[in-house]
Design goal:
With about 700 residues, the protein is mainly beta. It is built from 8 helices and 52 strands. Strands 34, 37, 38, 41, 42, 43, 44 and 45 form an 8-stranded mixed β-sheet that branches. The chain is elongated and about 125 Å long.
């Protein structure tokens, strides 16, 4: 308990609330009764400049029995008999000063059932193997807890039968036992556990002994020597049972033959905190904290613990306001009678201070310590991705990036999206957006701009200052330094980063340099979109390796936009001495139309010609005029369908892309119109065998073999 008074008041005739029962006591501790009929409380060893000689307790106007069980230079610990009080009723403990500090006396007041238990049915059927398993069972309980007290461990089997509801599943019940021991002198002590069920013994919250499962009922497990300081020590046993509690517990001083008879169980009740009030002040600060269900995010080590902080301050004769603060919390705690806050477990235990300000101007502060040793109740998935950017574009295309957030966590949790925007000229800007999800979704719109002005977009999604997800999008320019390896939605990825291929649009004005001979050892690869009919077979007789672009684009297992799959397939076919591209014309009737077709072809050409592709010789095949276009759905006739009638424009698009990248072309559009053969070269949107043979011959001549 830590109380700070900012402005002391002179003694005055104040009406205490609730009424003051002991006139000779200048201070008291107000404690709220919980489920325990007996509990412990600690008061300062000095009241003003005098030692505390006695403690008197009152429930309303009736005095309740107390007993001093331990005292030292700083505190006096008392056992309180609160059987006359109802749950949530206030118990007033008055500190009476005197000449000598109160000391533990004979046990005039004794808790008749000093071992407390708490049992709750859980969903698990297998016995836990560790304390972590016990905590997991704690998150799977399916009913209200049952509290009980017994005089000693031998009475435990009888408690469970009264409320056991067995069925064929025989689910476990999670059982927590608690008692307080008075250690008269410091030294090393040894503890033991027995029982069929596994059990874990904790002393002052620290595990000191593990008892394995499936042991004979009377077989004891003894632990190592545990050094204990004199004073009160809390013993807890965590175990499970199915029909009755069979746990036994014992302790003794190391080196002595028998049990420590001078270390008896004092009570199973909690050590309760309360509000410290003195007659010379108006404001008496106090606060309580209740932890909620801790949670985490997948892939993140940090655990987040929600707390509800409640102001328990009192102000005599006037009202007051409460303000909260803590150095361990990322967010402002604010003001009010009750506030909610989330703390990172790595920063616990942590102090939270409530400052009570009376209308008279008097202020006082109280600090409570937050701690959490409970389980992680849930683990949420979270993902982010960027949309609003194309996979391939020109530098003057407008892009409007959108960061989308998806999580399985409950709505209402606060998030912070931090964006780092790096521009092509080297400048950088940061942007921070605070958001909450709606049905698990959220999105943040960034500024619209030209693709050529951006170099990289990076974002970090944070929750209470902890990064729970991150991502980045790179805007790559020729020569490209990497080959995309995956398609995600409508975007490409290189490793973990999204990539935008900013392709060449204008001609460089450089003449095409034709190599004297093919170099390299991996032959020629043909990225074929219309030359071969896959169903016709004969793949082994072809003069080059073939990647069927139409088959890639129509892959049923595509996880994103299938027209981008050829761009992500180059890792499987490169490097090569030469790369010949006969572009797939399916894209002309699908996403992006002719504009999207041109940009994707330009990006594909740039990737092949770049160092990432091995800088091979690149040749684009200009498509001929077809009777119908692949995928357009038209029936062949005497004249080309409306889609195939645009053949010249499509051919010009391929030539324009080749010109922009300075690569060679094989012009089938002109060759098929001027060949003079009587047999048709195209039929039903495909090349005929004669057309395929002519295309092969022209490509081989271009490559020089």
């Amino acid at each position: 308990m830590c109380v700070t008074v900012a402005a002391a008041q002179a003694p005055r005739d104040l009406k205490a609330r609730p009424a003051w029962n002991v006139a000779e006591a200048p201070a008291r501790l107000i404690v709220e009764k919980d489920q325990d009929d007996f509990f412990l409380a600690r008061l300062p060893a000095r009241v003003g400049d005098r030692p505390m000689a006695a403690v008197r307790a009152y429930v309303s106007t009736n005095e309740a029995p107390t007993r001093v069980v331990w005292s030292d230079d700083s505190q006096v610990t008392v056992l309180v008999d609160a059987r006359s009080a109802k749950r949530t009723q206030m118990v007033k403990l008055y500190a009476v000063p005197g000449d000598r500090l109160a000391e533990p006396g004979p046990p005039a007041l004794v808790d008749p059932a000093p071992l407390r238990g708490r049992a709750q049915r859980t969903a698990g059927m297998d016995l836990p193997r560790s304390l972590a398993d016990v905590q997991m069972l704690e998150t799977r309980v399916d009913g209200r807890p049952v509290w009980f007290t017994v005089s000693d461990a031998t009475k435990l089997p009888a408690t469970f039968k009264e409320w056991y509801r067995g069925d064929w599943t025989r689910k476990n019940h999670l059982v927590d036992l608690q008692t307080w021991l008075v250690v008269p002198s410091g030294g090393k002590y040894r503890f033991g556990l027995a029982g069929v069920a596994p059990a874990w013994l904790l002393v002052d919250g620290r595990p000191v002994l593990e008892h394995p499962a499936h042991q004979p009922y009377d077989k004891w497990t003894s632990g190592e020597d545990v050094p204990l300081e004199p004073g009160l020590r809390r013993l807890q046993v965590r175990t499970v049972c199915r029909q009755e509690i069979d746990t036994g517990m014992a302790w003794k001083r190391s080196g002595e033959p028998g049990a420590a008879t001078n270390m008896v169980m004092l009570t199973g009740g909690d050590l309760r905190e309360g509000r410290w009030e003195t007659l010379d002040r108006i404001v008496h600060p106090f606060a309580t904290a209740e932890s909620g269900a801790a949670y985490r995010f997948a892939g993140v080590d940090e655990v987040f613990v929600p707390f509800i902080l409640k102001d328990g301050s009192s102000c005599w004769g006037t009202n007051h306001t409460a303000r909260w603060q803590s150095a361990a919390c990322q967010d402002e705690l604010g003001a009010g009678e009750a506030v909610s806050a989330v703390f990172r477990k790595s920063r616990l235990p942590a102090g939270v201070t409530v400052t009570a300000l009376a209308a008279s101007g008097e202020t006082a502060s109280y600090e409570t310590i937050l701690a959490y040793e409970g389980p992680v109740w849930s683990e949420a998935q979270v993902s982010t991705r960027i949309t609003g950017i194309p996979a391939a574009c020109y530098s003057d295309d407008r892009v409007h990036p959108i960061i989308r957030i998806r999580t399985t966590a409950a709505d209402g949790l606060p998030y912070e999206l931090v964006c780092d925007i790096e521009r092509a000229d080297g400048s950088r800007t940061n942007r921070v957006e605070r958001l909450v999800t709606d049905k698990g979704w959220a999105r943040v719109y960034l500024d619209e701009t030209e693709a050529g002005s951006l170099a990289r977009l990076a974002w970090s999604l944070r929750h209470h200052g902890v990064e729970i997800n991150r991502g980045a999008a790179r805007f790559l320019r020729e020569p490209f330094a990497c080959l995309p390896d995956a398609v995600s939605g409508e975007t490409l990825k290189c490793g973990d980063d999204f990539v935008v291929l900013v392709a060449s649009k204008a001609s460089r004005g450089d003449p095409v340099e034709v190599p004297a001979a093919l170099s390299g050892t991996n032959g020629v690869v043909l990225l074929d979109g219309f030359i071969y009919d896959v169903s016709a077979g004969a793949g082994d007789a072809r003069p080059w390796r073939v990647l069927d672009l139409q088959a890639v684009e129509e892959h049923e297992a595509a996880s994103g936009m299938s027209l981008l799959l050829p761009l992500a397939s180059l890792n499987g076919v490169m490097p090569a001495s030469a790369a010949v591209v006969a572009p797939s014309l399916l894209a002309l009737s699908r996403e992006g139309g002719s504009g999207g077709f041109e940009r994707r072809l330009s990006a594909l050409t740039g990737l092949l010609a770049s160092p990432a592709g091995g800088s091979p010789r690149v040749v684009l095949v200009v498509p001929p005029a077809f009777d119908v276009m692949p995928g357009c759905g038209c029936q062949p006739g005497a004249t080309p369908c409306p889609h195939a009638a645009e053949a010249r424009r499509h051919a010009e698009t391929v030539v324009r892309v080749a010109d922009a990248h300075g690569v060679e072309t094989v012009d089938l559009f002109t060759a098929f119109q001027t060949t003079g053969l009587s047999e048709p070269l195209v039929s039903n949107g495909r090349l005929t065998p004669k057309g395929t043979a002519l295309a092969e011959n022209l490509i081989q001549k271009k490559l020089g073999y």
